[in-house]
Task: inverse folding
């Protein structure tokens, strides 16, 4: 408890000299604090690629895990950054504070040179809150297209966002027995409306194709009484967790990158 | 000039009450300042997907273009963010400062609720510096694989990083006349060493394949005297700008995403 009450979550040094700034930055980095430096700087990056940023007023953030961000006053993306685990070399040269953030494994370096520092904030933040992300319906649809066995073995998607008279079908395909399948995806609890909507799509498709059509309602959970409605409408329900879809999309992103290189035909020798 | 000297690039409000914080945030947002709020908050996101972040001490940045970032004390990525052009609704409810950043087009909202504010920094930053990014050799290689006409019409890459006795060939392929081609890529000025390295690869391949092999040195520029050396070695030079490669890779990323959906076979109806 005394540790907590002694803690100063926020300390600010306004208009420090370059010497003072150097001292504050060194102490904060070695003490594993989070650091926000506001001032006029230029930035160079050297590694597999390289970049230069001409002088201007920016925000430098060094986090307690030794990750680095340089932010301009516009745009949500940092102009330069380094992941966690950087090593820092700081020194003064010709009236300039030079902060070199080096990624030891890849020998990449971001070098930030301040000729003027307006303020340095030193933060000791406690953050143990859990972050939960839930996929969108579009994400779930993409995950099903990428990995149809999420719904059932042997399912082959043919198209998505297929237009039928009452609206757009999320996923449309053929099951292992060659039957047409219509899939309706909900990212929250599937209610009565979702079941009726799916039944409408099937009615429209049956008229159009003049053959049997299966319907599967896909959602993380089902509202009370809807299971009974589904049975009476002759529709199936498949549980699908949006979190699982998020994981599959991450795998997909990785796979796409690998596939790109594997697409070039093998060497003839 | 008086405008510049009147400017206060950095103002800080330490330990404001929730009422004071509300006032500072409102004035800064309507005055199109860049704003850094440090305090204890929770964050909710609602849109196509959704997320929740339990309470903890974080850094909120609102930029002058109305983009938003929420940073935890670890990790280079923001935990929540919104692009430029957000609308802000701020109010106080039950002792909490609530900042709602709404993306009007997509109706997505990030809601940040502070029950404690340690400090608010209000920044007026001037940043007109130009940012220049130069591609890596690996980027240039990928661009050539993706769009071989960068080197010459009719070139068909067969493989990359092909191992021969003296090392790895950057790109290896067949030209429009069916001749074998070896490509060596440099992202800076190609010097004598690059030319000799390419000649070695070709020597090794000629022995292996027992057929004619062309060599092309690819770089944004060539060192003095190296053109003459290339001619004497029977090698070609092709100018390639790393910036052009960066542009092509961006196009490629977009195309890959579109291809993913076009890969699913067309509807039979």
Result:
């Amino acid at each position: 408890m005394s540790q907590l009450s002694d803690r100063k979550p926020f300390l600010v040094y306004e208009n420090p000299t370059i010497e003072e700034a150097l001292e504050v930055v060194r102490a904060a980095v070695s003490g594993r604090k989070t650091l926000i430096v506001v001032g006029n700087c230029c930035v160079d990056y050297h590694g597999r690629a390289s970049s230069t940023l001409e002088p201007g007023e920016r925000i430098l953030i060094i986090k307690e895990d030794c990750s680095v961000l340089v932010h301009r006053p516009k745009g949500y993306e940092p102009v330069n950054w380094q992941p966690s685990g950087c090593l820092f070399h700081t020194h003064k040269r010709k009236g300039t504070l030079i902060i070199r953030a080096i990624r030891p494994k890849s020998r990449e370096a971001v070098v930030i040179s301040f000729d003027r520092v307006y303020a340095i904030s030193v933060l000791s933040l406690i953050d143990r809150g859990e972050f939960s992300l839930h996929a969108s319906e579009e994400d779930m649809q993409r995950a099903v297209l990428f990995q149809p066995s999420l719904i059932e073995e042997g399912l082959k998607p043919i198209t998505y966002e297929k237009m039928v008279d009452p609206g757009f079908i999320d996923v449309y395909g053929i099951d292992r027995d060659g039957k047409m399948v219509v899939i309706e995806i909900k990212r929250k609890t599937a209610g009565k409306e979702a079941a009726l909507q799916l039944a409408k799509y099937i009615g429209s498709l049956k008229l159009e194709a003049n053959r049997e059509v299966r319907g599967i309602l896909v959602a993380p959970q089902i509202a009370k009484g809807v299971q009974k409605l589904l049975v009476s409408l002759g529709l199936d329900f498949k549980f699908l967790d949006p979190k699982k879809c998020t994981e599959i999309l991450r795998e997909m992103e990785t796979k796409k990158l690998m596939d790109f290189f594997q697409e070039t035909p093998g060497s003839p020798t």
Notes: Confidence is low (pLDDT under 50) at residues 261-269 of chain A. The helical segments of chain A are 2-6, 18-30, 137-146, 192-209, 226-233, 242-262. The radius of gyration of chain A is 28 Å. Chain A touches chain B through 77 residues (CB under 8 Å).
